[in-house]
Amino acid sequence: MGEKFLMKGNEVIAEAALRAGCRFYFGYPITPQTEIAHYLAKKMPEVGGTFLQAESETAAINMVYGAASAGVRVMTSSSSPGISLKQEGISFIACAELPAVIVNIVRCGPGLGGILPAQCDYFQAVKGGGHGDYKMVVLAPYSIQELYELTVDAFNISDKYRTITMIMGEGILGQMMETVEFKDVENNIHIEKPWATTGTGMKREKNIITSIYIKPEVLEEHNRKLQAKYKEIEKNEIRVESYNCEDADVIVAAFGTVARIISNVIPMAQKEGIKVGLIRPISLWPFPVKEFEKYAHVPKAFLTVELNAGQMLEDVRLAVNGKKPVHFHGRMGGMIPDEAEILEEIKKITRS
Amino acid sequence: MATVVKKPHALADIPMHYCPGCTHGIVHRIIAEVIDELDIEGKTIGISPVGCSYNNYDYFNCDMVQAAHGRAPAVGTGIKRANPENVVFTYQGDGDLAAIGTGEIIHAATRGEKLTTIFVNNAIYGMTAGQMAPTTLMNQVTSTSPYGRVAENHGFPLKVCELLSTIEGAVFIERASVHDIKGIINTKKAIKKAFKVQMSNKGFAIVEVLSSCPTNWGMSPAKALEWIREKMIDFYPLGNFKGENMEV
Q1: A89 interfacial to chain B (CB closer than 8 Å)
Q2: What does the alpha-carbon distance between residue B70 and residue B100 come to, in Å, rounded to a whole number?
């Protein structure tokens, strides 16, 4: 067992990026993720890296586009309104097939909303907040330890598929402190990037990084290539955790920190004779459809609990595919449901 | 027989798509000649804009990155910070640089990014069919100022070199024009210096090139060049604004 540290989630993201070999960070201040920037502003110079506070989110994501074109591991981070501003760049990066890691420590919206935790950017992240047919891998950790491990993984996934990987956590995850062990980055992969624009050295044909394909045949072909890549990611990169589902009366679907509340609800329900299971999608895209299919026959019904008006709910319903009812309980505006109110929802389902 | 003129190595040997009389081709050739003369093709990264020259990545033989509208200075910042040994240039039009990308150009200059920007000012949006640009002259008729640019509706044209001259990190600023031979020679001198400023790590360098758009101006190529001389230079004076005597 290695040494453990007590650290804030945002700082752990920054540390994970450094340990994954990321030496380039471009960002713009916004609550509740700014500690990522504070940490990297201090640490990047120590390791010969670049920390740059951009003039806007738009500029920051385009700096990411540039650095990723140059073949280096690069990250930006922001929170909901800032992520909205990055959508132009996200679509371009996806089309140009550049590897990049983007962190969204989600706050409540819409608009400027508030600075408290929410999951209201689920649709934006998994359905494409920018224009065009693209996907990015979206990972939703529920503990600080998992935040560390998934952030390191995010760089590997990005390099492997030349894709964006987003770490999406609620404000709680960025702000809370928990122990973390910085396990060796043994799975850290090194992938050659012969496509990068680093200069021809007069030794090879030029490389072009672009997201414009004026000829329709060529653009359709490029889209097909992207879709094939997304299929491959769907095959290989699903992450999900299930608990207590085998003979559950009700299976709750929840991601991120909400899943932690559910894990407290399970023993409470048990005392009242109700068996509650939990399916926790860790990769929100690709969505763990098969896990829901596997257990669809088991419970009386599903209950999705989210910090929004019902977003993952739609994917759960698609996955359950009408086999069982899928109920929803959500809180918005930075409000967090407590165990008692979730248990009440579960009891309503078992009574009906 | 001695060769007196040849295609620069840094320029691809394919036909360009520009309209007859458009001066983008001249500016491209100047950049390619400079890249050849400085022997930097192997380490140069060019950034293509949005606009008529969006695909000039096809025309240069160095590595090229196509950027979103106005974002080239931010993209260039990312490339240059990742690999400081590269020579990075952005190629931007007036809509790209002086409208949607105003923030990016000002802050790249403010940070003194070691970039070279070639700013092609033809006082109009070319690719989208002749709309008013921030650099459109007073009374100039465009498809979105059909009664001419008037101050009370549209405000006044933006003088980019003069604006950037107040910024410490922008160390070399010059306005040139390709309307005649003398102008072409001066443009090349300025662009070459702007590359050398970057290579000696002095800071941000920009050359504004007054350029023609006969198609959207509704003029013959010859008349368009006259219009640069008579109208544009009158409002956008040529010359160096900063860094003329800088040792590079």
Answers
A1: yes
A2: 5
